[in-house]
Predict the structure.
Amino acid sequence: MIDTATATGDLSEVARQLRLDILDSTTKAGSGHPSSSWSAVEICTALYFGGVLRYRADEPWWPARDRFIMSKGHAAPLLYAVLARAGYFDRELLWTLRQIDSPVQGHPIHGLLPGVEATTGSLGQGLSLGIGHVLGGRLNGLAYRVYVLLGDGECEAGQIWEAAMAAAHFGAGNLTAILDYNKFQETGPIAREMGLEPLADKWHSFGWHVDEVDGHDIGAIIAKLRTFPARPDQPSILIAHTVKGKGVSFVETDFTWHGRALPPALAERARAELLQGGPVA
Amino acid sequence: MQLGSKAGYAPATMPLRNVFGEALLDVATDNPRVVVLDGDLGNSTMAETVRKAYPERFFNLGIAESNLVGVGAGLAACGLIPWITSFSSFLLCNAYDQIRLAIALSNINAKVLGSHGGITLGKDGPTQMGIEDFALVGGLPTFTMLVPSDPVSMRALVKLATDHVGPVWLRSSRLPLPVIYDEESTFKIGQANIVRQGDDVAIIACGIMTAIALDAAADLAAEGIEARVIDLLSLRPLDVDTIVAAARDTGAVVTAEEHLLTGGMGSNVARVIAQHHPVPMRFVGLADTYTESADPADLLVKYHLTADDIAAAARDAVAAKRAQG
């Protein structure tokens, strides 16, 4: 078991490296969603490198592995950076993102890369897949946990609430959703475009255990996830309050970066900020 | 209305959907990895046979097709073999995007039953009818597409679909269909079956239209036109050899489908014939229209899916062939 107190410092460095990989892969590709990826870096760092997920990078389809489903598929650059760092495949593959003949597709495609559990990119679909893995685990007699990373914008999709209803109905205590609540969707602030609030109340009313956390506090994320499930037959959601574009000041303050890679000159500014840990004078 | 009676087949005894229910129960009994997912229509699709026998492997996801498909895909990713069942229209039209990403693009081992295909569900009307399923599943390139035409082929294709590794869609319908095949008949994915020999014209049909085509062939025989009737069964992959041989041997081809002509089976058969051995073709199917609530027999007449319609198309195709000399 990793000692969270001492490991968190190292994990912050892991998070920094993931942000740099996201920056480099999307800038080289000339497209992609770095800001949506950066907002969930600490969440994925906690899961993969904070002792939460049980996985075997050298046996990616180990039947008893915990599942991680990236429902917000546009954060593919984050997923790829995490999987490469975890040892699922050669990190050099990251620099083939969105290039011809590469398995590193713009959005994740199941079956092309080890560790990619689901095809996502049309939003709202990942939670349903997670329920399938829960029911499959029961039939196969395996006691793994299933984690689904949701975007906030995709919670506008009806399928999310179909799945929320079903997860509670089937008593999916081993299902955890983590909501990357960065408060922005493609065309603007969520509250302006299609408000989600009261969001915690919605999940409560669907029968879920709900908790909230600072989505950039790795130690806090790990600690909260360890308290799940509150009841063995109740699905859980951790609403992680995040900042879209986290780590790069001029992206954090400008939602129009959604779906855009940084051009090389700006990427150098972003790299300097990420290396320094704040805006460069 | 007794389909196949002119051609001498015994009257149907059981709606095709009931045969599906029995066939599904058989594969669930043979293979413990088979699981069944229902969109709250198990008593209509007849998937409920498995609910009664193996309740632990049956999941009703309620009236929520998007989630139904996603949960099924997740089960498939765990090595189980899901049969995702509902009305064709609801599954494909509500959950097309989910079928596309979670099953087709993922090339995952899931089976989709679209029941109540075509217009012969009848009185429930056009909201429930699946008249666009061939076109929609056609847009999912990794899917195998199977359309049984009688009880024997239904049992065989449900088993073939279950054993095949990869996405499979299978159409079921409500109408009772006569037994066309016997114990010796063979079925394979990608194999069309010749159910009547003849060299004057070929009628390529699927689903309920196969029995109707056999009735048409009986009428045509009385006029001295011997029709070869081909039961397509597998809409993808297509049996190119059997289709091309039919064009070459007969020189005139009619297709017959309980589906829109636009994007339908006939247009795919025409693509094969146009490329390999062009001959005059005629097409029986639904023109660009929705139908209505009515008795199935009345619908078939009004929307031109009868043996008379097929026979007229065949005569026309034969005349065109002869005109070409």
Q: What stands out?
A: The CA atoms of residues 213 and 220 of chain A lie 7 Å apart. Chain A touches chain B through 33 residues (CB under 8 Å).
